[in-house]
Amino acid sequence: MHILKAGREPFLTFLRNIPSQSVVLSISILTFMKADKLNSTFEKTTMLTVSCGLAITFFIAFFASMTLFKEHFFASYDKSLKNYHQLLKSNNIKGSKYHREYFKFIFKNHKLIAAESILITLIIFLGYVMVGMLAIQSVINTADKIIK
Question: What is the pTM of this model?
Answer without folding.
Answer: 0.71
